[in-house]
Design a protein that fits this description.
This protein has 2 helices and 23 strands. It is 6% helix and 52% strand. It has one domain. It has 430 residues and is mainly beta. The strands form 3 sheets. It has a 16-stranded antiparallel beta barrel. Strands 16-19-20 form a 3-stranded antiparallel β-sheet, with no helix packed on it. 34% of the residues are buried.
């Protein structure tokens, strides 16, 4: 790690720790990613015996100006549309049926396979015009427990920390499908789910794959001042994700592969009335761990990482994000490549270590609860350890290249609309 980088990061860390005690987190729903991707899983009791039409649409343009030897840059211009009928026969039950479409500007055909991380299988069948999927969800609410079957409440609703879940996935990933248990109590929130990503028939030429996740938040301290509206809380987040590939029907000879991410830490939240200059802060310190229980997807079996982050919300819906990540022999299942020690720009290459500072600014505003506009820019102050390349045609033995310090960045603009329409109200049965 060079001297210039060390000086930059020391200044960065000093500024980070100076800010946290002054104003430490805002309401989580103030983040751009949650405003764009979070869904409400609680049934609307005012819509009993009502047939409605809900439309979820997200238009976006995101540009990733990535340089260096970690990952190639790319752009995402497009729209995602999900119209679906909704029906609430009783206050505890909600049924939804519709379609999901992903459309990227300039594309005229889309592969049929799942749009995330089943990289060893490239489907030979395509859809024209858009990537289309059926959408069905059945949810039941029993006091503090919500059961969901079909298309579950995924993405931003899981509330996973950034190093383990790239918010960009709300622009690219297929809707999660499987089952889900959500528990809400005064001091405990739990979200347990299975997302089945790849199904196989006999003689299929790819592996079945699914992800099991469990996120929890245990509230250990909370204080609310009724006079000035200021609220503080401290919680313990526990997050676990495991992906399994292969099974009895697998004929690929790749073998069973099981990989996992886990994190445990401490979060502090502060929120204040919207007329203040600083309306909230979220600060967190997290220890991370990855494990390859079986298989050979990663060149290592396990490894640790650390994440320190803070989000500061200001008046007029402006948010400043700061973060520091460091790891050795670590890979994130759903985080971007700057939160791991593997290179996707150079196939089979790995870094000795990875250190990433994150600085981001975002603006988002929601109108009438159904329309959100936003924009963000994020820079990654990135220092990689020595990069080890596998042997190739010109190098009979593995070889190394020096470490690098780079400042890749990304920016995007977004518009989400989620209007609801009442189609018919049915009379209650006597």
């Amino acid at each position: 790690m060079n001297d210039t980088f060390m000086r930059s990061f020391l200044l960065y860390l000093l500024s980070l720790f100076a800010i946290i005690p002054i104003v430490a987190n805002t309401r989580d729903d103030a983040s751009l990613s949650r405003r764009l991707g979070q869904e409400n899983y609680r049934p609307d009791t005012t819509q009993i015996n009502t047939l409605g039409l809900d439309v979820e649409a997200l238009a976006f343009f995101k540009d990733n100006e990535f340089d260096g030897n970690v990952v190639k840059g790319y752009s995402l211009p497009g729209v995602r549309i999900q119209p679906h009928l909704t029906y609430t026969p009783i206050k505890e039950i909600k049924l939804e049926l519709g379609l999901h479409a992903t459309i990227y500007a300039g594309a005229n055909k889309y592969p049929c396979y799942v749009f995330h991380d089943i990289a060893t299988w490239k489907g030979d069948q395509y859809q024209s015009g858009a990537h289309l999927l059926p959408f069905f969800r059945a949810s039941a609410r029993f006091k503090n427990i919500t059961l969901v079957v079909g298309n579950i409440y995924g993405g931003a609703t899981h509330n996973i920390i950034e190093p383990l879940y790239n918010p960009e996935l709300i622009l690219t990933d297929d809707p999660e499908m499987g089952f889900q248990f959500i528990v809400d109590t005064r001091r405990w929130h739990s979200d347990l789910w299975m997302n089945w990503q790849s199904y196989i028939f006999k003689e299929s030429t790819h592996q079945e794959a699914f992800t099991v996740g469990w996120t929890q938040s245990i509230n250990i301290w909370k204080r609310h001042n009724q006079q000035n509206g200021i609220q503080h809380s401290i919680s313990i987040p526990i997050q676990l994700m495991l992906q399994h590939r292969g099974g009895e029907q697998d004929v690929t000879h790749m073998g069973v592969q099981t990989i996992a991410n886990a994190t445990l830490g401490l979060q502090y939240n502060y929120s204040a009335p919207k007329n203040r200059v600083v309306t909230g802060v979220h600060a967190e310190v997290m220890g991370l761990y990855c494990l390859q229980q079986s298989g050979r997807l990663w060149p290592f079996k396990n490894g640790p990482a650390m994440w320190i982050g803070a989000n500061i919300d200001f008046i007029r819906d402006l948010r400043l994000s700061l973060g520091f990540f460091t790891a050795r022999d670590f890979c994130s299942l759903y985080g971007n490549q700057y939160f791991g020690t593997l290179s996707t720009k150079h196939e089979g290459a790995r870094f000795l270590s990875m250190t990433t500072g994150v600085i981001g600014v975002e603006y988002s505003r929601t109108f009438a609860k159904a329309y959100t506009v936003g924009a963000n820019i994020k820079a990654y102050l990135n220092s990689t350890g020595t990069l080890t390349h596998p042997a190739d045609d010109t190098h009979p033995e593995p070889y190394t290249t020096p470490s690098e310090f780079r400042t890749p960045f990304s920016f995007g603009v977004y518009f989400r609309c989620s209007p609801s329409f009442v189609l018919k109200r049915f009379n209650k049965k006597k």
